[in-house]
Amino acid sequence: MAFPSIEEARKLSEEELAEEVLAAKRELFQLRLEQATRRLEKPHLFKHTKHRLAQLLTVERERQLKAATEE
């Protein structure tokens, strides 16, 4: 399974980006819960979800910095 492209994250609107960040954080929580109860079947999902969350937060920060320099 390939990592998602950061270009996909850059195409999202502000609201969609916030929703995706929240969804990724929820998924990480769920994965940690499954790992703690020994029900986790796909441990590689940790890496993929963390990677996606980092991409989303990077895009969010880029937009914040761009907005700050335009003011």
TrEMBL record:
PROSITE patterns, sorted: RIBOSOMAL_L29
InterPro entries to which the protein is assigned, alphabetical: Ribosomal_protein_uL29, Ribosomal_uL29, Ribosomal_uL29_CS, Ribosomal_uL29_sf
Keywords: Ribonucleoprotein, Ribosomal protein
Residues in coiled coil: none
Pfam families in UniProt: Ribosomal_L29
Record bears the keyword Chloroplast: no
GO cellular component, one term: cytosolic large ribosomal subunit
GO terms assigned for molecular function: structural constituent of ribosome
GO biological process entries: translation
Family membership: Belongs to the universal ribosomal protein uL29 family.
Name assigned to this protein: Large ribosomal subunit protein uL29
